[in-house]
Amino acid sequence: MPTAAKLVGAITFFAVGWFVALQVLLTLPEGTPARYFPLTIALIGLVQGWMVAGARAGNGFSAAISSGLRSSLQIAFFGLLLFALRTMFIRSADLRYDDPGEATIETLELFLEYLTQSLTIEIWGALLVGGVIGGILTEFAARAWR
Per residue in 114-133, pLDDT tens? Predict the structure, then answer.
Protein backbone atom coordinates (compact mmCIF):
# COMPACT_ATOMS: atom_id res chain seq x y z
CA MET A 1 0.00 0.00 0.00
CA PRO A 2 1.45 3.40 -0.92
CA THR A 3 2.38 5.62 2.00
CA ALA A 4 4.08 8.97 2.34
CA ALA A 5 7.10 7.27 3.88
CA LYS A 6 7.48 4.99 0.87
CA LEU A 7 7.21 7.96 -1.49
CA VAL A 8 9.77 10.00 0.43
CA GLY A 9 12.05 6.97 0.69
CA ALA A 10 11.79 6.33 -3.04
CA ILE A 11 12.52 9.95 -3.96
CA THR A 12 15.34 10.27 -1.44
CA PHE A 13 17.10 7.09 -2.44
CA PHE A 14 16.61 7.91 -6.13
CA ALA A 15 18.60 11.06 -5.40
CA VAL A 16 21.20 9.11 -3.41
CA GLY A 17 21.61 6.64 -6.27
CA TRP A 18 21.91 9.44 -8.82
CA PHE A 19 24.53 11.31 -6.77
CA VAL A 20 26.56 8.16 -6.11
CA ALA A 21 26.43 7.24 -9.81
CA LEU A 22 27.80 10.68 -10.68
CA GLN A 23 30.62 10.10 -8.18
CA VAL A 24 31.37 6.77 -9.86
CA LEU A 25 31.46 8.43 -13.28
CA LEU A 26 34.24 10.71 -12.03
CA THR A 27 36.39 7.65 -11.26
CA LEU A 28 35.82 5.81 -14.54
CA PRO A 29 38.51 5.93 -17.23
CA GLU A 30 37.98 8.43 -20.03
CA GLY A 31 35.82 7.07 -22.84
CA THR A 32 34.01 4.45 -20.76
CA PRO A 33 30.47 4.10 -22.14
CA ALA A 34 28.07 4.97 -19.33
CA ARG A 35 25.05 6.50 -21.02
CA TYR A 36 22.35 5.07 -18.75
CA PHE A 37 24.51 4.43 -15.69
CA PRO A 38 23.19 7.25 -13.45
CA LEU A 39 19.57 6.51 -14.34
CA THR A 40 20.01 2.78 -13.75
CA ILE A 41 21.59 3.25 -10.33
CA ALA A 42 18.97 5.87 -9.43
CA LEU A 43 16.16 3.46 -10.36
CA ILE A 44 17.73 0.82 -8.13
CA GLY A 45 17.71 3.48 -5.40
CA LEU A 46 14.06 4.23 -6.09
CA VAL A 47 13.11 0.58 -5.64
CA GLN A 48 15.23 0.23 -2.50
CA GLY A 49 13.80 3.40 -1.01
CA TRP A 50 10.24 2.22 -1.62
CA MET A 51 10.64 -1.42 -0.61
CA VAL A 52 13.23 -1.23 2.17
CA ALA A 53 13.42 2.22 3.78
CA GLY A 54 9.80 3.19 3.20
CA ALA A 55 8.37 -0.14 4.27
CA ARG A 56 10.32 -0.14 7.54
CA ALA A 57 9.63 3.50 8.46
CA GLY A 58 7.83 4.35 11.68
CA ASN A 59 9.89 2.21 14.06
CA GLY A 60 12.13 4.94 15.48
CA PHE A 61 15.23 6.75 14.36
CA SER A 62 17.75 4.01 15.06
CA ALA A 63 15.74 1.59 12.92
CA ALA A 64 15.40 4.31 10.27
CA ILE A 65 19.15 4.83 10.15
CA SER A 66 19.78 1.09 9.85
CA SER A 67 17.19 0.68 7.09
CA GLY A 68 18.67 3.70 5.29
CA LEU A 69 22.13 2.17 5.46
CA ARG A 70 20.71 -1.15 4.30
CA SER A 71 19.08 0.59 1.34
CA SER A 72 22.35 2.26 0.39
CA LEU A 73 24.33 -0.96 0.66
CA GLN A 74 21.74 -2.74 -1.47
CA ILE A 75 22.01 0.01 -4.08
CA ALA A 76 25.73 -0.68 -4.24
CA PHE A 77 25.31 -4.47 -4.28
CA PHE A 78 22.64 -4.59 -6.98
CA GLY A 79 24.40 -1.93 -9.04
CA LEU A 80 27.68 -3.85 -9.00
CA LEU A 81 25.90 -7.12 -9.73
CA LEU A 82 23.88 -5.65 -12.59
CA PHE A 83 26.88 -4.18 -14.35
CA ALA A 84 28.98 -7.30 -13.79
CA LEU A 85 26.21 -9.34 -15.40
CA ARG A 86 25.92 -6.80 -18.22
CA THR A 87 29.64 -7.04 -18.96
CA MET A 88 29.47 -10.82 -18.86
CA PHE A 89 26.55 -10.90 -21.32
CA ILE A 90 28.35 -8.53 -23.69
CA ARG A 91 31.44 -10.75 -23.55
CA SER A 92 29.38 -13.91 -24.00
CA ALA A 93 27.87 -12.46 -27.18
CA ASP A 94 31.42 -12.44 -28.54
CA LEU A 95 31.65 -16.19 -27.72
CA ARG A 96 34.33 -15.57 -25.13
CA TYR A 97 33.23 -18.36 -22.76
CA ASP A 98 33.27 -22.10 -23.36
CA ASP A 99 30.61 -23.05 -20.80
CA PRO A 100 28.17 -21.44 -18.35
CA GLY A 101 30.44 -22.16 -15.38
CA GLU A 102 33.20 -20.07 -16.87
CA ALA A 103 30.75 -17.21 -17.44
CA THR A 104 29.55 -17.44 -13.83
CA ILE A 105 33.07 -17.34 -12.46
CA GLU A 106 33.85 -14.37 -14.71
CA THR A 107 30.76 -12.58 -13.38
CA LEU A 108 31.94 -13.02 -9.80
CA GLU A 109 35.43 -11.82 -10.75
CA LEU A 110 33.93 -8.77 -12.46
CA PHE A 111 31.81 -8.09 -9.38
CA LEU A 112 34.91 -8.12 -7.17
CA GLU A 113 36.86 -6.01 -9.66
CA TYR A 114 34.12 -3.39 -9.77
CA LEU A 115 33.87 -3.48 -5.98
CA THR A 116 37.58 -2.79 -5.53
CA GLN A 117 37.40 0.02 -8.09
CA SER A 118 34.56 1.61 -6.14
CA LEU A 119 36.39 1.63 -2.80
CA THR A 120 36.86 5.38 -2.54
CA ILE A 121 35.85 7.82 0.16
CA GLU A 122 33.74 9.82 -2.28
CA ILE A 123 31.61 6.88 -3.36
CA TRP A 124 31.17 5.05 -0.07
CA GLY A 125 30.98 8.28 1.92
CA ALA A 126 28.12 9.42 -0.31
CA LEU A 127 26.42 6.03 0.09
CA LEU A 128 26.71 5.97 3.86
CA VAL A 129 25.86 9.63 4.50
CA GLY A 130 23.04 9.45 1.94
CA GLY A 131 21.71 6.30 3.61
CA VAL A 132 21.62 7.91 7.04
CA ILE A 133 19.99 11.10 5.74
CA GLY A 134 17.54 9.13 3.60
CA GLY A 135 16.55 6.94 6.52
CA ILE A 136 15.97 9.94 8.78
CA LEU A 137 13.94 11.78 6.13
CA THR A 138 11.84 8.68 5.58
CA GLU A 139 11.22 8.40 9.32
CA PHE A 140 10.18 12.07 9.49
CA ALA A 141 7.71 11.43 6.68
CA ALA A 142 6.30 8.39 8.48
CA ARG A 143 5.78 10.43 11.63
CA ALA A 144 4.35 13.48 9.87
CA TRP A 145 1.85 11.63 7.65
CA ARG A 146 0.38 8.73 9.56
Answer: 899 888 899 999 999 999 99
Query: At 99, is the secondary structure helix, strand, or coil?
Result: coil
End-to-end CA separation in angstroms for the chain: 13
- CA-CA distances (angstroms) from residue 97 to 36, 89, 104, 110, 128? 26, 10, 10, 14, 37
Which residues are CB-neighbours of 6 under 8 A, at least 6 positions away? 49, 50, 54, 55, 57
Query: How far lies 136's CA from each of 29, 41, 42, 51, in Å?
Result: 35, 21, 19, 16
Cβ of 106: how many Cβ atoms within 10 Å? 17
Angle, alpha carbons 18-23-28 (nearest 5°): 120
- The model carries a pTM of 0.90
